[in-house]
Design a protein that fits this description.
With about 425 residues, this protein is of the alpha/beta class. The chain is about 40% helix and about 15% strand. The protein has two domains: about 5-40 and about 290-420, Methioning gamme-lyase, C-terminal domain (Aspartate Aminotransferase, domain 1, Alpha-Beta Complex), CATH 3.90.1150; about 65-275, Aspartate Aminotransferase, domain 2. The structure holds pyridoxal-5'-phosphate.
Amino acid sequence: MTELMKQYTQFGISESVVLFGEEILKSLEERFRQIDETAEYNQLKVIRAMQESKVSEACLMGTTGYGYNDLGRDTLEQVYAALFHTEDALVRPQITCGTHALALALMSNLRPGDELLSPVGKPYDTLEEVIGIRPSKGSLKEYGISYRQVELLPDGSFDYEGIRAAIREQTKLVTIQRSKGYQTRPTLSVSRIGELIRFIKEIRPDVICMVDNCYGEFVERIEPTDVGADMVVGSLIKNPGGGLAPIGGYIAGKRECVENAAYRLTSPGLGKEVGASLGALSSFYQGLFLAPTVTASALKGAVFAANLYEKIGFPVIPDGQESRHDIIQAVTFGSPEGVIAFCQGIQAAASVDSFVTPEPWDMPGYDSKVIMAAGAFVSGSSIELSADGPIAPPYAVYFQGGLTFPHAKLGILKTLQNLIGQGLISADFHRI
Ligand SMILES: *Cc1c(COP(=O)(O)O)cnc(C)c1O
């Protein structure tokens, strides 16, 4: 037994499981090489943005109180603008999460009487309350902002005629979600987002096109702002925080869009001038620096899991061969036991809280019980190795993250070992 094999067996993973994993990995060498090339390209992009913006040691310090003249904060916003090729950016620890960043971008750029359009079907769950699709205090709907939605066609393509018909005089902003989130539609590539924006701008050049960029950053070499998006929005405890950012969100885009968001985040008249960065800046900078390779690690984990579970006989979305546009992997186990065994395997591979056993529980906002595995350094961070699944048909888990590929690999092997232990997979790696 090799030294490495011994390490795996100490985690309770059998030799045959490790060898099965190795066999899958052998077939992925070319795929991983391409992921590494994208990471290399994006690493250079990040370093160049930092050099051009003259990031200095002083930028890593924070301010307190009002945060006037916060050099590090203002420079970081320049770095994000350079990276996304936009006029300006707002990158703040006061933006508490992805939903908050999206709500901020919407509420600050829409006025009573305006209409919001989603041409790609239902938005992410938490946005339903922001928009007012589900009644909620403070929603856009309460402020007289209406909403329309055009579904994707059954084959996942854009319903161009439906979209044309839905763009009206009042349409002020179009929101496009890049990642599929927890749906089964395909994730949109940046180039498809570009086609959609071109179509919309031909009809109404003045409509603001915003992209929910969560889970998409650095997966490709270009970002939605390179193909016409007026604004991209995301969370720093996902890809662009590189696992180090302890909080935060960003909005990058046209000067006016960002300015509107800043006046809403702080106050009319104050805008970007206030907002102390406290001690968060060095982790924002260093996290962004690491983000391209961290995203690549998470992507490799997703591709590995897809190919491994596909080979065993479980449906996976995206499939093993598909090109990737976000870091989320869904695996359908078809039974509650499968979902639970998978999540418990991910948890058991964590550095933090590995000794706890996640169980399904009733979560606010969900119809069914949900199980979540997250042993994270940053609470709730989903760029770290994590998984969750509703205990309801079709019994799928959504798996993402992994700050390093060896960690993602360990987690996935541990899930396989657990599923075999539960009698859901045979000893010769077939679905039972
Ligand atoms: C995660 C996510 C959000 C919301 O982000 P939170 O930080 O969880 O509030 C919104 N949209 C998409 C597509 C996401 O993946």
